[in-house]
Design goal:
- The protein is built from eight helices and 13 strands.
- Helix content is 25%, strand content 22%.
- It is of the alpha/beta class.
- It is globular, with a radius of gyration of 17 Å.
Amino acid sequence: MNLLNLITDNKKITLNGPVALYDSPDHKVFWVGSVEESIFRCNTYLLQDGAQNYLIDPGGLVTHFPQVLDRVKTLIEPSDITHIIVHHQDPDLCASIPLWLKFNKDIVIMTDPRARVLLPHYGIVNGNYFNVDDKTVALQSGGELKFIRSPFMHFPGAFVTYDSASGFLFSSDICATLDDNWKLVADDINSHLGLMNAFLEDYIACNKAIRGFLRNIKGIDIEAILPQHGSIIKREFVKPTLDYLKDFKCGLDILYPDL
């Protein structure tokens, strides 16, 4: 069951613990992110499927890790994390990975080769890596995780993850917002689109990168978009959000409009 459909008032969400977003007997998704006084609040997600536990973009060190760890501990033992999905190499996504590896050195780090070459700089020396590169991975419950390339949004090796069981698209920096008045779930599409502008303009390479990404996800039935920064986008706002992106000018389009 998609529990996002039941969230109609952000004030009723308790953020000092995990928030259930999808729940079925053998497949569950939780928000286990951090809350701090910063417009760069980070959303970490935990996907549970059978005996496998996927931590998605686990976050940074100082403010993120203690909060994410506390939330995860209410659901499973940290040593039960079997996979970490890292959508690109930024420290706010993955600087905490060495701390998670202390709980379980055999965690599979699922990422793109371009990010993999940078992860040792965070202290990951002998990582157990899985090259995502447009692959699809079968889940124990019968669904699948589909890894879809999104180059230059905002990293050459960036990708997104689609969970077929929930219909959730874990979009990393795509559709992210910078917001002083952060809400876990977007409740006003016009406000949300406006808040995306600041992030998109500065962090996404150009409109061609956006259109390439939209082509890559064409035909996928998206129940919700779950970014690493900002608010979760429910199904009713998914199409307006993607339509908004089509002609959005950003990055090099703004810096070099005459080229």
